[in-house]
Design brief:
By secondary structure, this protein is an alpha+beta fold. About 45% of the residues lie in helices and about 20% in strands.
Length: about 450
């Protein structure tokens, strides 16, 4: 006897038999994009769904679901797709749609009521000349510009394990480490986000804002220290809050970018938590800032000394996937030209297949900042490709087609660093997919 699982948001129905497959298994088997950072091992919560109908037709909650549901205060209709096995008709709604949303899940574990002390990195980014922009442009144009600014510069925060704490007029505040992590990792994430924000603003000025005759500038300040984090406020309306001296100092450091003529300044506490010799530092200052009796040491951040794989990939992602359908079309055409027999594996709708490809690619790049989950995800991805009929000898073809597509899409925007980063990343992805999908003797070097 067959049953149906319906994905409400995309109006897709999938038939299945038996009770051995999970909801995630059915999504994967039918090539429906479904977030699952940890590869479906119940370690993360990105595959969660809301059950709109047929709750009684699902297997009981596992211990993993019970623990997650309790700690994150889920309502009873939320299930992990990798744990729930349907035994009848079910209608579900996928709750996590983009990789950027994955990082916002950190807010679920923020303490409620009384705040807790946690060591975090705090980033303040200020849009320059906002007053002039407001007086010289229509309100609708200002709203458009701000939304472009918030989107372009907010994404690097989310891609690097950060939370967008708040927007204050022309200012964005991001925090890193609310869910733990070492001091070094939290500071590195904040630094990578800051450099990514700078790149995003330059790209925004070259493209979206060119016709406005406007060139936006920003100043960024980063500090590290122990702050209070929690959901605070009236019992009926609590908000995510970060309070403490390190937050205030981060704001003051950002303000110092104006008087020093710099773009990014970091505190000495950030610098001391980064691997020695890994950063390019410009000017150093000992400045008196408001609220502090003694001058504080701040340093101008210019970049990483060595290739930072995550930063290079993140900076090119939005450009590459700006037109996801075009990216997929070029890639698959190259694959079919190099290996015509591969076309037999793709009998389904190629538009849907293309969107699955870009969904997967974006997810991998976002997950590089969470390597422990990425390893599990690639293990599952490799095994799934075996079930699709992918042979080990196809991997070099896929890599070559992907690299050619990336170079073609980037065009004049490509750099040696970017190409080297994608080359290394694809080698890493392919190696990890192969070693779990095939016996070691069968793997083929790309």
């Amino acid at each position: 006897m067959s049953f149906k699982i319906t994905y409400s948001s995309i109006n897709r129905q999938v038939e299945f038999e038996g009770q051995s497959q999970t909801i995630l298994d059915l999504s994967i088997a039918n090539r429906i994009p479904h977030m699952h950072e940890c590869g479906g091992h119940g370690i993360c919560t990105t595959c969660r769904v809301r059950v709109l109908h047929g709750m009684e037709n699902l297997s009981p909650k596992t211990d993993s679901e019970k623990i997650n549901g309790h700690s994150r205060k889920w309502d009873p209709t939320v299930r992990l797709a990798c744990q729930a096995r349907p035994k009848g008709d079910v209608i579900v709604q996928r709750l996590i749609w983009s990789s950027g949303e994955v990082n916002n899940l950190q807010k679920e574990l923020v303490p409620q009521g009384k705040a807790e002390e946690r060591p975090i990195a705090i980033l303040f980014c200020d849009l320059r000349n906002y007053t002039n922009l407001s007086s010289e442009n229509l309100n609708y144009d200002i709203a458009y510009l701000l939304n472009k600014f918030y989107t372009a510069l907010g994404e690097p925060i989310l891609m690097n394990n950060g939370i967008i704490y708040q927007y204050v007029g022309d200012e964005i505040v991001g925090v890193f480490g609310t869910n733990g992590g070492t001091a070094q990792k939290n500071c590195e994430d904040a630094i990578r986000a800051a450099l990514g924000m700078q790149y995003a603003l330059e790209s925004l000025n070259r493209t979206e804002l060119k016709d406005f005759g406007i060139k936006l500038k920003s100043g960024i300040g980063i500090n590290f220290g122990t702050s209070y984090i929690g959901l605070l406020g009236h019992p009926t309306f609590k908000q995510f809050s970060v309070i403490g001296d390190p937050v205030n100092v981060a704001s003051r450091i950002q303000n110092e970018t104006k008087s020093t003529g710099t773009k990014i300044l970091i505190s000495d506490s950030v610098f001391q938590n980064i691997e020695s010799g890994s950063l390019i530092i410009g000017q150093e200052f000992n400045n008196k800032v408001r609220g502090k009796d003694d001058p504080i040491k701040i340093l101008e951040l210019l970049g990483f000394k060595e290739l930072n794989l995550q930063l290079e990939l993140q900076c090119s992602m939005n450009f590459l996937l700006e037109d996801e359908d075009r990216f997929a079309e070029i890639f698959y055409q190259k694959v079919f030209d190099m290996a015509p027999e591969v076309r037999e594996l793709f009998r389904s709708n190629m538009t849907e297949q293309g969107r699955l490809l870009t969904h997967m690619l974006g997810g991998i790049i976002h997950s590089l900042s969470r390597p422990e989950q990425l390893q599990n995800g690639l293990k599952t991805l490799g095994r799934n490709h075996v079930s699709y009929g992918v042979k080990v000898e196809y991997y070099p073809v896929v890599k070559q087609a992907m690299m050619e597509t990336i170079e073609e899409i980037l065009g004049d925007n490509k750099t040696t660093k970017t190409i080297n980063a994608w080359n290394s990343a694809l080698d890493f992805v392919i190696e990890n997919m192969q070693k779990h999908a095939y016996p070691k003797a069968e793997t083929v070097s790309s």
